[in-house]
Amino acid sequence: MTAKTKSPPLFLGIDTGGTYTDAVLWSEAGGPGGKVLAKAKALTTRHDLAVGISGAVDAVLQEAGTDPTAIKLVSMSTTLATNALVEGQGGRVALVMIGFAEGDLARDGLKAALGSDPVVFCPGGHDVHGNAAKLDLSGLEAALPELEKSVSGFAVCAYFATRNPAHELAARDLIRDRTGLPVTASHELSAKLGGPRRALTTLLNARLISMIDRLVAATEGFLAARNIAAPLMVVRGDGALVSAAFARQRPIETILSGPAASLVGARHMTGLDDAVVSDIGGTTTDVAVLDQGRPRLDPEGATVGGFRTMVEAVAMRTFGLGGDSEVALEDGALSPRILLGPRRLVPLALAGLMHGEVVTAELERQLRAPNPGRMDGRLAVRTGVPERLAAGLTGAEAKLYELIGAVPQALDRLLTSNAQNATLNRLVSRGLVHVAGFTPSDAAHVLGRQANWDPAAARLGAELFARRRDGRGQFIAASPEAISERVLTALTRLSAEVILETAFAEDGLDGAATVAHALVQRAVDAHPGIARLSVALDRPVIGLGASAPLHYAGLAELVGNNCVVPEDTDVANALGAVVGQVRVSAEARVSQPKEGLFRVASGESVRDFNDEAAAIAAAEKDVRAIAAGRAKDAGTDSAEIEIASEFRVSTVEGQRMFIEAHVVAVASGRPRIAV
Question: What's the pLDDT band for 300 if we cut at 50, 70, 90?
Answer without folding.
Answer: confident
